[in-house]
Structures are given as structure tokens and as C-alpha cells.
Design goal:
Blueprint (H helix, E strand, L loop, with lengths): L9 E2 L1 H9 L8 E4 L12 E2 L9 E2 L3 E4 L9 E8 L13 E5 L11 E4 L3 E2 L18 E4 L9 E2 L10 E3 L7 H9 L4 E4 L4 E6 L4 E2 L10 E2 L2 H12 L2 E4 L7 H9 L7 E5 L20 E6 L1 E2 L3 E7 L10 E6 L3 H19 L8 E6 L10 E10 L5 E5 L16 E5 L10 E6 L9
Parallel strand pairs: 1-19, 6-7, 14-17, 14-18, 15-16, 18-22, 20-24, 23-25
Antiparallel strand pairs: 2-13, 3-12, 4-11, 5-7, 5-8, 6-10, 9-10, 19-21, 21-22, 23-27, 24-25, 24-26, 26-27
Helix pairs in contact: 1-5, 3-5
């Protein structure tokens, strides 16, 4: 494996992100059954395939009539009954009616429906009936003169064929599924969910819950990145831990060929002797080890891998994250989350608010300092940001309660009472912003 040069490009995080995204492209869309479409993103506009209703039908249980022939007290012969799903074979003629159930096709010749509650039968002597019998009466007496179109749903009155329903890029909810089903569709074309490999590297890490011997530590990044990938809209695939061995790393990467759309590694991204991910730079995989102008999350490895395309048909992206859990999470938000959004054609979820610092927020000489803070809204509606966990990148305890990253560009930091931009993270289960 090629040895990494002693110097690496120092990049603004936005420049590094642009380089990465410039080498990726959205994955090819796929058609999925309606039952699997919830929360997916439409890849094509949704239009009505058929009119809704598809035919003129009754809006309630009653009697189909010709409105112009009916006066209060009129008695009509009952010719037949039509229920939902049955054809309306018997036409309505002058002096006659057909009993119809809700959703049944309107019989030929009819233009209105009289609710059964507004009719009488031989059994009631013409008085209003109290319930709808299964047996057809010989005649009914109509108590009210209907208007044309009364209790009739006309074909296409809700939707015409080819009506626009939703745009490409819209997220599919239950309403869109209902519209698709009502207009005769059983599938929807949606953007593909990126399949993301998650690999933790390092001789020192073991799977959570395993017995710890000597100087071994639990793998924090594996489950954390798995969760963050899922939250960002990807499908995570967690793979076994990779030892600090060049051949082991290359073998693990080769085993991902054709299986994934993006690869995330954690650890080994710095320039130390055992940092094998960084040493991919200069090898057969077209990736670049960079030094980002941010703290935490300075070392990263970005690019694409020389592998067969994944399920989505595009180049396999690569983001090598730092080993410190906090730094890995910060770098994930800055680099990996936008890559997942681009692959799946989802809007980038990051939002920001302006907040007042309640304590001094430290800066970083020559770098953007991303300070973990707790955002709270005060009585006048403004936001205030309180730092959590100090400046150490490895302080995992500070993650609980942190719902934002204060972006401090001044090396001298942000003073108490000064305004600062805060990126929302959603890392913790604390009250959402």
C-alpha cells in the first residue's frame, strides 16, 4: 500500500463536500409497490391514471330516479336493485325506479337518487320507512322531489384522468398512496434508497457487548453511524470490524463490490503509522486524504472506490471519517449526510438558526470550530445556545442534550450575549427544535 505523503490538502469543508458530490450522481429510480412507498421520494410526477369516480354512481343508499318525473307523493314501481360492484343493467323509466346502494353505478335513464329514509313502502302504508329491508318492495312513495344530480357522484368529479397529483421530489405520505390507489396504480416510481456500508477500523475496537481485554475499547462508531445513515435516508449495512492491516482493509473493500452505493469508514483517517484508511490515497482507489478546516473532524478521506457499481448503478462513493465518535458524528453531518441526500435525491436535512450564546464559545485558530450546544427558546421567541462538553472531541457524554453545532469562525470565539449560527443535529433524544 502506498505511503501517504507527509502533507495533505487543507480544505474548507464546503470545498471538500463539493469535490465529493461532484463525483457522485443520483441513483437510478425504482418502482415499488404502494405498500412500500411510504416516506419515499417520488422520482416522477404522479398523475391520475383513471378518472375518480370512474363512472357515475350513487352517493348513498336509495332509489335512482328521473328527477323531472318526480313530484312529492309520487309512487314508483321498483324494477331491480344494484349494489356496489354490480353492473346497472336495468334502465330507469317513467313511473319506475331502481334501488341503488352507495357506490353502485347509476342506472341508465336516472339522474338523481332519493335517500331511502325519504320514501315509504307498501309495508309502511307510504309512511317513512325506519330501516332498509333486504327484500325489494313492490313500490315506493317518494316524499321529496329531488333535483337533478342529487346524491349522484359524476365520473371524474374528484379527479380526471391525467390530473396532476404530486411532483417529482415530493415525499410520499398516506394521502399520496391513497391517490395512487384510487387512480388505478399499484406501484410508484421513487428515488432509490442508498445502500451504505459502515466499517469500523482499528485493532483496539471490539463489538459492543464483547469482553474487553487489555487496552481494547467498544466500537462506538459502528452503531452510531448505522443510526445516522438510517436517519439521513439510507439503508445501513454494518460489516465486521477491520483490523489495522493493509490487506484486511483492501479485502474488506473488495468484498463490497456491487453491493453498496456508499462506503463509510471510521478511524484510520489521520496521518499516523497505523492510519491505513488515509493511505488509500495514492493507491488504486481514487480517494483523497484531506485536512478540513474544522474542529472536530479535521482528518477525512473522500472520493470514490474502484468497485463495481452498487444497487443504484452509480459510482461507489467513499467517506473516511475520524475515529473519535464526536468527530465522526460531526464529519458525518458535514460530509456523509449530504452525500446520502444526493444519492437518494432527498433535500439536505441540515437547518440552522441564529442563537445568543449564554457562555463563551471557543474558536479554533485557522479552522471553523463546531461547538456542541443545547438550543432553547426563551420567552421572547429567540434562541439561546449553551455549550456542552467543552472542546474535547472524544467527550461522548456531551452528546446527550446537544441538539446543535454552533459554527464559530472567529479564532477568538463568541462572547456571552453574541449571536452565533447553530446547525441543528437531532443527535439526542432531548426535546426537538
Amino acid at each position: 500500500m502506498t505511503v501517504l505523503p507527509t502533507t495533505r490538502p487543507a480544505l474548507d469543508p464546503e470545498v471538500a463536500l463539493a469535490r465529493l458530490l461532484g463525483r457522485l450522481h443520483p441513483l437510478r429510480p425504482e418502482a415499488v409497490p404502494l405498500g412500500e412507498a411510504l416516506d419515499r421520494v417520488l422520482a416522477r410526477p404522479l398523475r391520475a391514471a383513471i378518472p375518480v369516480p370512474r363512472f357515475d354512481c350513487s352517493a348513498m343508499d336509495g332509489y335512482a330516479v328521473r328527477a323531472a318525473d318526480i313530484a312529492p307523493g309520487a309512487r314508483l314501481r321498483v324494477l331491480a336493485e344494484v349494489r356496489a360492484g354490480q353492473p346497472a343493467a336495468v334502465p330507469v323509466t317513467s313511473g319506475a325506479t331502481v334501488r341503488v346502494m352507495t357506490g353502485a353505478p347509476l342506472p341508465p335513464g336516472a339522474d338523481a337518487v332519493v335517500a331511502w329514509e325519504r320514501t315509504g313502502t307498501p309495508e309502511t302504508g307510504g309512511a317513512p320507512v325506519g330501516e332498509l329491508d333486504d327484500d325489494l318492495p313492490a313500490w315506493v312513495e317518494v316524499h321529496d322531489a329531488p333535483r337533478p344530480g342529487q346524491h349522484v357522484r359524476r365520473s371524474g368529479e374528484d379527479l380526471d384522468a391525467d390530473d396532476f397529483l404530486a411532483a417529482a421530489g415530493d415525499v410520499v405520505g398516506a394521502a399520496e398512496i391513497a391517490l395512487a390507489a384510487a387512480t388505478g396504480r399499484d406501484t410508484l416510481w421513487v428515488t432509490r434508497v442508498p445502500v451504505v456500508a459502515v466499517l469500523s477500523t482499528g485493532d483496539e475496537v471490539v463489538a459492543p457487548g464483547r469482553h474487553l481485554r487489555g487496552a481494547r475499547v467498544p466500537d462506538v462508531n459502528g452503531p452510531v453511524l448505522e443510526a445516522l445513515v438510517r436517519r439521513a435516508g439510507g439503508v445501513p449495512l454494518r460489516f465486521p470490524l477491520v483490523a489495522d492491516d493493509p490487506d484486511a482493509l483492501l479485502q474488506a473493500l473488495d468484498g463490497l463490490s456491487g453491493r453498496v452505493d456508499l462506503v463509510l469508514t471510521s478511524g484510520g483517517a489521520s496521518g499516523g503509522a497505523a492510519d491505513l484508511v488515509a493511505r488509500l490515497d495514492g493507491g488504486r482507489h481514487p480517494v483523497e486524504a484531506v485536512s478540513l478546516w474544522m474542529k472536530p473532524g479535521k482528518p477525512a478521506v473522500l472520493g470514490v472506490l474502484d468497485l463495481e457499481p452498487g444497487p443504484g448503478g452509480g459510482p461507489v462513493g467513499f467517506v473516511g471519517l475520524p475515529g473519535s465518535p464526536v468527530a465522526a458524528m460531526v464529519a458525518f453531518d458535514m460530509l456523509a449526510a449530504p452525500a446520502i441526500a444526493l444519492l437518494g435525491e432527498r433535500p439536505i436535512a441540515a437547518r440552522a438558526v441564529e442563537a445568543t450564546a449564554t457562555e463563551r464559545l471557543p474558536g479554533a485558530d485557522g479552522r471553523v470550530s463546531l461547538v456542541r450546544v443545547r438550543l432553547e427558546r426563551i420567552d421572547d421567541g429567540r434562541w439561546q445556545a449553551t455549550p456542552i462538553g467543552g472542546e474535547r472531541a472524544h467527550g461522548v457524554r456531551s452528546l446527550v442534550g446537544a441538539n446543535g453545532l454552533a459554527v464559530v469562525c472567529d479564532a477568538d470565539g463568541i462572547g456571552v450575549g453574541e449571536l452565533v449560527t447553530v446547525r441543528l443535529t437531532g443527535w439526542s433524544g432531548c426535546p426537538a427544535v
